[in-house]
Amino acid sequence: MSELNLIAFISIITAGLTVAIGSFGAAMGEGRAAAAAMTAIAQQPDAAPVLSRTLFVSLAMIESSGIYCFVVALILIFANPFWDAVRPALGG
Amino acid sequence: MELTPDTRVLFEFGFIRLNATIVNTWIVMALLVGVSWLVTRRLRPDAPPGRLRNALEVLVQMIEDQVHSVAQRSVRQVMYFAGTLFLFIATANLLGVVPGFRSPTGSLSTTLALTLAVLLAVPMFSISHSGLAHYLRNFTQPSLLLLPLNILGEFAKAVSLSIRLYGNVMSGAVIAAILLGIAPFFFPVVMELFGLLVGLIQAYIFAILATVYISSAMADPKAAAQLENAP
Prior knowledge:
Chain A is an all-alpha fold. Chain A has three helices and no strands.
């Protein structure tokens, strides 16, 4: 297996793993946060505006860890620095 | 595939290169300044407010309420700063649905610049509000041992703020582009609609987090004394 193929192989597998594991953690966290907010809204319907505002902010903050993983995966696939470093050496 | 608008060079004169990020930032700035200038051009106490002026007043009132409810104090300079951040990021994100326009917030350079502005605003507000000694004491707050961790925390704030905005906006554009290749016509429209919501929420979060960082750095000595005296 040539050097270029090895880099592509490892990058693609790592990108898939990154998104899989990263989104798993973010989804777990978001599910827990949403469940807790729904319990709170069911107990105190009057506080629903404040709760939903806080929920949106915290969901987006939790989601950002998943987004970091997604950015890393996108960089691995579309803008891989190692791939770009090896390719001109091969004259491709 | 272009990940960011940085790679799209629009003009090139010698060593000066204008990429799409800079040009789109100028477009957003021109839009904001132009609309505000048009609306507030004829401000007189006797003239009844028009439709657009009412809309702007509602927007400013909403920003003021949100900042006040988060910061728990009314410092107008914080409101100006956070409101400017919100308006700029929201306009940039919402313009992303216009075909051919790539949001300047989808580039790490823009988001890093905005984050640097927040990072500079935190000590400025803190020092001007409660003095240099208070600001420096904040770094050794639980104990002196945590000084390196507190300094590291400032950089972690910057990284997380900038990459959160960049990742969300950039991933929205990239996912729409990928879906356009796989399932054209209907599904990308749904993702663009979702991108509108995400863009507004990210602008809100950026402004709110800036407010939280600033207002937590400028602790009010009177409020702290009241808290200690409370039963």
